[in-house]
Amino acid sequence: xxxxxxxxxxxxxxxxxxxxxxxxxxxxxxxxxxxxxxxxxxxxxxxxxxxxxxxxxxxxxxxxxxxxxxxxxxxxxxxxxxxxxxxxxxxxxxxxxxxxxxxxxxxxxxxxxxxxxxxxxxxxxxxxxxxxxxxxxxxxxxxxxxxxxxxxxxxxxxxxxxxxxxxxxxxxxxxxxxxxxxxxxxxxxxxxxxxxxxxxxxxxxxxxxxxxxxxxxxxxxxxxxxxxxxxxxxxxxxxxxxxxxxxxxxxxxxxxxxxxxxxxxxxxxxxxxxxxxxxxxxxxxxxxxxxxxxxxxxxxxxxxxxxxxxxxxxxxxxxxxxxxxxxxxxxxxxxxxxxxxxxxxxxxxxxxxxxxxxxxxxxxxxxxxxxxxxxx
Length: 376
Description:
This protein has helices at residues 47-52, 62-67, 71-76, 79-84, 96-102, 128-138, 156-177, 195-207, 224-234, 252-259, 270-276, 308-311, 315-323, 327-353, 357-370; strands at 6-13, 16-23, 26-30, 32-34, 36-37, 58-61, 90-93, 104-108, 113-116, 123-126, 142-144, 184-189, 212-215, 244-246, 265-267, 279-282, 285-288. The protein folds into two domains: 6-265, TIM Barrel, CATH 3.20.20.105; 275-370, no CATH class. The longest helix has 27 residues, at 327-353. Helix 7 packs parallel to helix 8 (195-207) and helix 14 packs antiparallel against helix 15. The protein contains 15 helices and 17 strands. The strands form four sheets. The protein has a nine-stranded parallel beta sheet with strand order 4-15-14-13-12-11-7-6-5. Strands 1-2-3 form a three-stranded antiparallel beta sheet. It is α/β, with parallel strands linked by helices. It is 42% helix and 20% strand.
C-alpha cells in the first residue's frame, strides 16, 4: 500500500485499460465494479462475503447517510469503515443525484440546494462545501464533487446551465477538499447528450488537475447507444493517467462496452436490487426465479461457479424462496449476482492483460445470447 493516492496503468488493449489504484486502505484493481452500500451496508450481504467475492472497494451514499444515522454520528463512532466493518477503500457519492431525484420541495441556487428529506420532511441544505464536509465525516477514501445531474431528455439550455453550475461547484469542492494525503476527490463530467458540452466539461475539469474523473448524467433514461456515443467523445478528453469512473452503470453489457471505451470504475444497484426481486445474473444471461418453470428443477444456477449460492442451491429451492418471499432468497440471489459481477470484472482484467479483450468480450456476449439452459 502507499501513503498517498496513486493510479498506474498496467496494460492496455485498444482503449481498454488494466490498472491499479493504490491508497492507504488498500489497492483497487481496475476495471473495478463497486457494490453499492447505500446506507452503510450492501443490502442482503455480510461485508466478509462482499470482500471474499473480490470486491476491492464499495460505495457509500452521502444523501442517505446524512439523513440516517447522520454523518456526525458516524464520525463519532469511528467513521464508515469502523461503523460498517469494511476496512477496504470506500467511495462516497456527493448526494447530488438523490437530492435531485428523491427529495421533495427542493430549491436550487448558485449556493447549493435546499430540500426536504424523503423520510420525514425535515429541511436540509446541501452545498458543495457541506457535501465535502459530510464525506470527510464519513471518512471515505474517494469523495465526489457535488453536481447537478439532469435527467434525459432535457433541453439544451437546461443541460448547459446544469453543466456550467457543476463546473463552478467542482472548483468549490476542490477548495473545500484541500490536501488530504491518501485520499482523492473526483470531478464529474456533465453535459447530457450534447457532444460539445461533454467536451467542454471534460476539458474544464481536467484543468483542475484532480486525482480522478467521473462521467455522470448517463444511464438516466437515454438509450445505450447514446451513452456509448458520449463515452466515445468524453474519454479521449480526460487525462490518460487518471482513473475514469462511469457513475451508476450498469448491466453487464453496459460494463463490457464501456470498458472497451476506456472506463475504469463502475457502480450500480442493479445486481443487489435484482437479487431482492428474484432475478439472477449468470454467464448465460438473466434468470427470473419467479418463473414457474424452475419449480421442480434440481439444477443450480451455474454448476461451474465458485460461489456457493450459484453452485449449491437448486433452482427449485431458489424459486420456492422467492415465491414465498423468504429473506434467504434475496440473500442467495444477491450473493450470486455480486459473484457474477466480480467474476466478470476478473475475466475482463485478465483479458486486457492477455491482450485478447475483444475476443473475450465477444465470447462473453455470445454466452448471454445463447441464453439459459432449457428447463427439465
